[in-house]
Amino acid sequence: MASSNSIYHLATLLFFCFIHFSFSELVQEQPLVLKYHNGPLLKGKITVNLIWYGKFTPIQRSIIVDFINSLSSDKATRPSTSSWWKTTEKYKGGASNLVVGQQVLLENYPLGKTLKNPHLPALAGKFNGLSAINIILTAKDVAVEGFCMRCGAHGSIRVGRGPVRGTYIWVGNSETQCPGQCAWPFHQPIYGPQTPPLVAPNGDVGVDGMIINLATLLANTVTNPYNNGYFQGPSNAPLEAVSACTGIFGSGSYPGYPGKVLVDKSSGASYNANGVNGRKYLLPAMWDPQSSTCKTLV
To answer: Which positions make up the signal peptide (predicted)?
Structure first.
């Protein structure tokens, strides 16, 4: 016969199991929902102008230009960069078709090698076109205020004297500054589980990391260009189309593990998207408004 003491312990254990189960049921993760705040989105034909600040090799520039051209091209085999971008069509207003416009090379560091936040919209103002995204890409030896705490940013600038605003993006090459934060999963993470890094699909940890951050910011820009589009949380620190899905690249991902992705048999490089000119890229998950989930390509 069981003693009263053991029965007490068993009852206590069952009680706490019940409480834990009930609490777990109550705090089940809620579906991620990016609310639409009724502002304009960037739709239709959008010109992408590039400002290269610092020294980039021709190969580095071609990796990034090919990526942008891949977003609105149907020439690549699936899973393709364009099929990833098509998720943005599910946000109100239809397709956002990106076309590379003008490029300027600022290899002589006209504002120095340390940029403050006000320098970014000033550089973006070199192009004043409407329906455009001006992208500032900073080289690996350029320090930008707040870099490493963030891997890039997007914002808007006034065009002319009227109320019309253009948009801009800044992305930095983190190869020598903070690859563990801004080029993961192609570099060991600074914090968390130390899983082996993936092999960068274009053989350049810094630039392949820039692709991840540029993809994130392009999707965030067209779906929330003026801070009144799609986002969750406070407007000064919003979770946006891709930043809401940070760290997810393939199925089965969890913190520290990017998920199951494709591997190129010849190079051993990891990727999940085919681009133009035979390029391969690793792209982050994007929030799908139809399913309210972070959607991956593979």
So the answer is: 1-24
**What are the tokens at 264?**
């190129």
Beta bridge partners of 121: none
Q: State whether the Cα torsion 197-201-205-208 is positive or negative.
A: negative
Cβ pair 106, 295 in contact under 8 A: no
Q: How far is CA 261 from the centre of its chain?
A: 17
Longest dimension (CA), the chain: 89
Which pLDDT tens digit goes with each residue over 97-116?
A: 999 999 999 999 999 999 99
Tens digits of residue pLDDT in 75-88: 999 999 999 999 99
Q: What is the DSSP string of 136-189?
A: EEE-TT-EETTBTTBSEEEEEEE-TTSS-EEEEEEEE--TTT-HHHHSTTSS--
What Rg do the C-alpha atoms of the chain give, in angstroms? 22
pTM (two decimals): 0.89
